[in-house]
Specification:
This protein is mostly helical. The protein has one domain: Hydantoin permease (Orthogonal Bundle). It has 24 helices and 2 strands. A hairpin with a 5-residue loop joins strand 1 and strand 2. The longest helix is centred in the last third of the chain and has 37 residues. The protein is globular and about 65 Å long. The N and C termini lie far apart (48 Å). One of its GO terms (biological process) is cellular response to starvation. It is found in: Cell membrane. Keywords: Cell membrane, Membrane, Transmembrane, Transmembrane helix. This is Carbon starvation protein A.
């Protein structure tokens, strides 16, 4: 019953936090009211600024922030044991991650939908804006690389998922056209879209898996499935990021959110059934705190925090909150559900990942065998419990010669979640093969939503930096998007010893950069509250944690790993990002006393827009 107890206790903890701490943050600290004029209405252009009902915005926001961050991070972190990962996910989401996401969303809707980086220019200083935008650009480059790589690895490992992921794109376009151009309802398109998606899952698993391994040269260095899929995916991200949000981004994210909620419901039921029947036992499947860790593994402090990353707090979320979500929010009162509630739901997803990678994997190791017809079969081996868990997590137990952090790769950890989740699904009667296909599709679809959202956000950031540098040619949305895609692709392909194999190498950089970004966003929120003489404790503690832990991790990696290995990409990113963080922190300390109780200037209207509404000027002072 330990597995079920952990799942239920975590869920109840998140619900209580939402209705207590989350409500206090929204109503008392940020004083959100539904009568405020929103950027989506005031600046409506039906491309980026689109007033949207809460259910659709929540679907877009959640699938964009979730991606594979709360999957890959916890799947890696249980290497140190499931208990530290679980505690950080639950308390980190409630006290830090949710506060960060809500703060960024509120600051943006009260600054005409400006990104948190743009708002930093008035809340802190003009130089802080440039520093923040530079950190954003570097962080998003790593996000594009790592998420493109994750989807490519899933496609290469599980060709059964490819068809369903690509089918979701035209289905989303049809739903967007139906709802926004024909004024149709959501019920029938949603049902049709989900039905087509699951038909594609079945066809991909049993009839037509799309495996590039049989097409590409076997010994080619660059023409391997992971690299080719990465190129295709980033080319898709280019197209998706320049289309209007209503045509692809919103409806695709909405369909993916429905698919996720259905899959999560099935997994939760599977957890309950497997727990009550004794098939899944968390305490017997994996160590609560791992006692045998390879000598080359990073220390649990500070790397637990930056490895889990999005599962507890993610700087990427401030980009989604202030980059796309704030431009679609219909009412300010929706911010609590979308911002704070979205992070808590992501925390619950991370809890399920921990259970799948421990209790689910402990139900039996899953093996994949491809027949002569190209169709794969799946079976569960007799090895169960910690013996099965050690096949995925080589911790050095029993003198395992293959143990070692640096000998492992990203694919094994993704497989732990997919196989463990599929084991849970078998408890509710689904065949193992279909369960694996559903889980692989879930991960790939999630990562795809983050990929094109991140590309759109990177386009905004590059355009802002180009305008600040008086280079309007680079601010063009097609040019800026091309720069974003090329840089992300270069990092994905060339980081690591072999093309497309840099997943585990990039993840620590992603996690540290991601959470440093969260610390800087919380610093901007601290200035926002300080200028209004509001209580600071709710922001100050998360800010200190999110600036200290990632800086510690980057410093450790630079000294012990990146400089000794001579990795130019990692050294460059690490040194520059660490330097920018220190610079911005010093900037904040120097300006702090002068800003307390002094309101910043009201936000300017974007070029070509009418003068700001009086109501919005008043709202900006709240």
């Amino acid at each position: 019953m330990s597995t079920l107890i952990v799942a239920v206790a975590s869920m109840l903890g998140f619900l209580v936090a939402y209705h207590t701490y989350g409500r206090w943050l929204a109503r008392k600290l940020f004083a959100l009211t539904d009568d405020a004029v929103m950027p989506s209405e005031e600046l409506r252009d039906d491309v980026d600024y689109v007033p949207t009902r809460r259910s659709i915005v929540f679907g877009h926001h959640f699938t964009s922030i979730a991606g594979t961050g709360p999957i890959v991070g916890p799947a890696l972190a249980v290497f140190w044991g499931w208990l530290p990962a679980l505690l950080w996910v639950v308390f980190g989401s409630i006290l830090i991650g949710g506060v960060h996401d809500l703060s960024a969303l509120v600051i943006s809707i009260r600054n005409k939908g400006q990104s948190i980086g743009q708002a930093a220019g008035r809340l802190v200083s003009p130089r802080a804006k440039i520093l923040f935008l530079t950190v954003l650009a570097m962080a998003l480059s790593v996000v594009l690389a790592i998420f493109g790589l994750v989807i490519a690895v899933i496609f290469a490992l599980y060709p059964e998922s490819v068809l369903s992921v690509w089918i979701a794109m035209p289905v989303a376009v049809m739903i967007g056209w139906w709802v926004y151009r024909r004024g149709g309802g959501l019920l029938m398109p949603s049902l049709i879209g989900l039905t087509l998606l699951y038909i594609a899952v079945y066809v991909g698993a049993y009839v037509m898996p799309l495996d590039l391994a049989g097409i590409l040269p076997a010994e080619s260095k660059y023409l391997n499935p992971v690299v080719v899929w990465t190129v295709i995916l980033l080319a898709y991200a280019y197209v998706a990021s320049v289309l209007p949000v209503w045509l692809l981004l919103q409806p695709r994210d909405y369909i993916n959110s429905l698919q996720l909620f259905l899959a999560l419901a099935l997994i939760v039921v599977g957890v309950g059934v497997a727990s009550m029947t004794g098939a899944a036992d968390l305490t017997q499947s994996a160590p609560a705190i791992a006692k045998q860790i390879p000598a080359d593994a990073p220390p649990i402090l500070p790397f637990l925090f930056i490895t889990i990353a999005c599962g507890a707090c993610s700087g990427f979320h401030c980009l989604v909150s202030s980059g796309t979500t704030s431009k679609q929010l219909e009412k300010a009162g929706d911010a609590q559900a979308v911002g704070y509630g979205g992070m808590l739901l992501e925390g619950m997803l991370a809890v399920i990942v921990i259970l799948a990678c421990c209790a689910g994997v402990g139900m039996g190791k899953v093996t994949r065998t491809v027949g002569e017809d190209g169709i794969a079969s799946f079976s569960r081996q007799a090895a169960t419990g910690q013996q099965a868990w050690r096949d995925y997590y080589r911790t050095g137990a029993d003198g395992d010669p293959n143990a070692g952090w640096k000998k492992q790769d990203l694919s094994k950890k993704l497989a732990a979640f997919i196989d463990g989740g599929a084991n849970f699904l078998t408890a509710v009667g689904l065949p193992l093969k279909l369960g694996v296909a559903l889980m692989a599709t879930l991960v790939a679809c999630f990562a795809a939503t983050t990929l094109d959202t991140a590309t759109r956000l990177q386009r905004y950031v590059i355009s802002e930096l180009a305008l600040s540098a008086r280079a309007p040619v680079l601010a063009n949305k097609y040019v800026a998007t091309a720069i974003a895609v090329v840089v992300g692709l270069s990092i994905a392909v060339f980081a690591g010893d072999q093309p497309g194999k840099g997943g585990l190498i990039l993840w620590p950089l992603f996690g540290a950069t991601n959470q440093l970004l969260a610390g800087l966003a919380l610093m901007v929120a601290l200035f926002y509250l300080s200028r209004r003489s509001k209580p600071l404790a709710a922001i100050l503690f998360p800010m200190i944690v999110m600036m200290l832990m990632p800086a510690w991790a980057i410093t450790y990696d630079l000294y012990w790993n990146w400089i000794p290995s001579g990795s130019t990409v990692l050294i460059l990113f690490g040194v520059v990002i660490l330097g920018l963080q220190v610079w911005m922190a010093v900037e904040g300390v120097l300006l702090w006393r002068r800003c307390r109780g002094v309101l910043e200037p009201p936000p300017e209207m974007p070029a070509g827009r009418a003068a700001p509404l009086r109501e919005n000027v008043a709202v900006a002072q709240n």
